[in-house]
Amino acid sequence: MHPAQLPTRYAAVYAFFLHGLDAAAERLKNFVEKAAKATLVGDIFDDAATGQGLLNFFLRAMNCGAISEEEAERRTGVTVAELRAGSFVKILKNRTK
Fold first, then answer.
1. Are 91 and 32 spatial neighbours (Cβ–Cβ below 8 Å)?
2. Is 91 exposed, middle or buried (0-12, 13-18, 19+ CB in 10 A)?
3. pTM to 2 decimals?
4. HEC sequence for the chain
5. With contact defined as beta carbons under 8 Å apart, do 72 and 78 qualify?
6. How far is CA 88 from CA 7, 73, 81, in A?
7. How many CA atoms lie less than 13 Å away from 1 in the CB half-sphere?
8. Distance CA 37, CA 45 (A)
9. Which of 12, 39, 58, 91 has the fewest CB atoms within 10 Å, counting from its CB?
10. What is the pLDDT of residue 40?
11. CA-CA distance, 80 to 39, in Å (whole number)?
12. Do the beta carbons of residue 58 and residue 72 sit within 8 Å?
């Protein structure tokens, strides 16, 4: 990649994360809440891949600087420590204890 391409590449990455931020935040927040409740009543929750994908979205958005850790935590209800742990399954296990 030519150095002159870096600013537009950087802008494209930011735009990607900022464009999908609202929907992804609401989905992850609802997903964690509903998944944890389902686990508590003994239902089997078998779509952790969706939760993991949403979690990865926020990890990458924070890592590139598109959003702050505080904004990710505020929007999703998932703590920074939980986000940084990088495992949706661990989040659910810790919330059902």
1. yes
2. buried
3. 0.79
4. CCHHHHHHHHHHHHHHHHHHHHHHHHHHHHHHHHHHHHHHCCCCCCCHHHHHHHHHHHHHHHHHCCCCHHHHHHHHCCCHHHHHHCCHHHHHHHHCC
5. yes
6. 33, 15, 12
7. 8
8. 10
9. 12
10. 45
11. 22
12. yes
Taken in order 19, 22, 36, 80, the sign of the CA dihedral is positive
Token digits of residue 94: 């810790």
* pLDDT tens, residue order, the chain (97 aa): 788 999 999 999 999 999 999 999 998 998 888 876 654 445 555 577 888 999 999 999 999 999 999 999 999 999 999 999 989 888 888 887 6
Residue 7's identity, in one-letter code, is: P
